[in-house]
Amino acid sequence: MRIVIAEDDALLREGLALLLRAEGLDVVATAGTPAEFLAAVGEHEPDVAIVDVRMPPTHTDEGIVAAGEARRRRPGLAVLVLSAYVEQAFATELLAGGAGRLGYLLKERVGRVEEFLAALHRVAGGGTAVDPEVVGQLLARSRPDTALSRLSPREREVLSLMAEGLGNTAIAERLFVTEGAVHKNIRSIFAKLDLTPTDRADRRVVAVLRYLEDTARR
To answer: Running DSSP on this structure, what letter comes out for residue 153?
Structure first.
């Protein structure tokens, strides 16, 4: 198993490398930035990438974005994401998508070596590994989102494509409709979900998160 580690905290990065090498695993490269990580993936063609969610320069979602790009460049790459705390949007998407070769663990789980290694091997073998704390928080949230039941089949279809990350033009092409029709559907989605233009949060993001949360509960 060839592994690349992407973690901006040098101490944790080197600690992970030492741990995995002590277990006889082949850590072929470590990286402190998304650019270094992608370069390492291209050079070493690893089987698994261990990636921190939050990386430079903004420490928001750079790790997730880089992991997605790495999987695009190297189909079949297994990715185990590490986070200091529960990133509910990513966890919901992971559970809703049911994608294989993906894992999400809290960093505190690394200290429980057997659990960490078991998750790593499960992801490398084509499975999914989700931290028990993440699952607990997601299951604890929740009454059904009845507002979503007000959406028409076409509006729900548009929302599902939004959840895939498609922009309005791409959605129009996928559904063989005009971009104006997509705009109209999205306006209706916002209205039915009671998302007003004055909301401080990004309405598109909130709508997608509510859709993913509802899908994960089904």
So the answer is: H
To the nearest whole number, what is the mean pLDDT of the chain? 85
Count how many residues are written for the chain: 218
| 108 & 176 share domain | no
Q: Do the Cβ atoms of 10 and 18 come closer than 8 Å? A: no
Question: Does position 200 have pLDDT exceeding 70, yes or no?
Answer: no
Residue 66 amino acid letter: A
| The pairing of beta strand 48-52 with beta strand 78-83 | parallel
Last residue of a domain, one of 140, 156, 189: 140
For residue 57, cis peptide bond before it (omega within 30 degrees of 0): yes
The residue among 160 and 142 whose pLDDT is bigger is 160
Asked if the model's pLDDT at residue 143 lies above 60, the reply is: no
CA distances from 212 to 83, 87, 89, 114, 144 (A): 20, 13, 8, 31, 12
Band the pLDDT of 211: cuts 50, 70, 90.
confident
User: Can you tell me the distance from the alpha carbon of 49 to that of 45, in angstroms, rounded to the nearest whole number?
Assistant: 10
This prediction's pTM: 0.62
Of the residues 140, 175, 209, which one is the last residue of a structural domain?
Answer: 140
Domain of residue 18 covers 2-140
